[in-house]
Amino acid sequence: MKEKELFSQSGYLTIIAGFLLLIVPFFTILTYIPALSIILSLAGFILLIGLTVIGPNEAAVVTFFGNYEGTMKQNGLRWVNPLYRRKKISLRARNLNGQKLKVNDKLGNPIEIAAVVVWRVSDTAKALFEVDDYLKFVDIQSEAAVRHLASSYAYDTIEDENANITLRDGSGKINEMLEKELNERITQAGVEVMEARISHLSYAPEIAHAMLQRQQATAVVAARKQIVEGAVGMVEMALARLSEKEIVHLDEERKAAMVSNLLVVLCGEKSVSPVVNAGTLYN
C-alpha cells in the first residue's frame, strides 16, 4: 500500500458555520420549533466533528470504514468528512540511540557496539498499515542490522591483517554500509534512514585488558622496527661517507665493530656513556 494525498478543505469557514448552527436556534424564533432546533444543532455538531488541526511536519492518515482514503498533509485547520477516522503521525526526524550490544566479530572476539540512527517516516500508509508497530519495528531492525554488521568484519587489522575494512579503522565506510542495510530492512515500514553512525565500539570487558596488551606490544614492535631501519640507514651512510672522504681506512673486523657500536648508540633506550680511546685504533 502506497501513500496518497487526500484533499481537505480549509476549516475556518466550517467552524464559523458549525458554531452558528449550534447557537442560532437558541436565540431566534427557531426556539419555538424544537425539532428544527435539534436538527440544526446536530448538523452544527457534525460539522465541527470533521475539523482537524495539522501541525508543521505532521500528517493525518484517513480511513473510512476500514478503507484507506488518503493522507492529509496541509498545515492548519482542515475539514474532511466527519465520518472519516483520522490518525495523526509525525513526519519529523527522530533519533534512535541504540543500546550497547555484545556481539562476536568476524573472528569470534566478543565486542561491545552501539549505533545512533536518525530516521523519519516517509510513507505514512506503509508505516501504519504494513507493520504492526513501526516504532518497535525500527528499533528491532536497527539492532539486527548492527549485529549483522559487527559479525561481518573484524574489530581491528591486528586480528585480520588482510582486511581492507575493519570496524575500528573503516568508520566512514562502516557507517555507509550500516545506513544502506538499515534502509533495506525498514523500507517496508515506510521509514527512511537519514543517518546512521557507530556511537560505541570496544572489546568486551573479559578480553579488553588482554587485547590492550596485544595492541601495546604491536605498537612497540612497530616502533622498534622503524628505529632499527633508521639506524641501519645512518650506519650505512656513515660508512659510505668515511670511505668516500678517505678519512680512515677500516678492515672488515673494525667495520663490524663500528657498526655494532653505532647500532647500540642509535637503538638503545638509554643514553650511552662514550669511552675515549687515547691510543691507536688497534690498541
Automatic annotation (TrEMBL):
InterPro entries: Band_7, Band_7/SPFH_dom_sf. It is found in: Membrane. This is SPFH domain-containing protein. Gene3D superfamilies: Band 7 domain (3.30.479.30). GO terms for cellular component: membrane. Its main location: membrane. Keywords: Membrane, Transmembrane, Transmembrane helix. CDD domains: SPFH_like_u2. It is a single-pass membrane protein. The keyword Disulfide bond does not apply. PANTHER family: BAND 7 DOMAIN-CONTAINING PROTEIN (PTHR43446:SF1), MEMBRANE PROTEIN-RELATED (PTHR43446). The chain crosses the membrane at residues 12-33, 39-65. Pfam families: Band_7 (PF01145). The lineage of its organism: Bacteria, Pseudomonadati, Bacteroidota, Cytophagia, Cytophagales. Residues 49-215 form the Band domain.
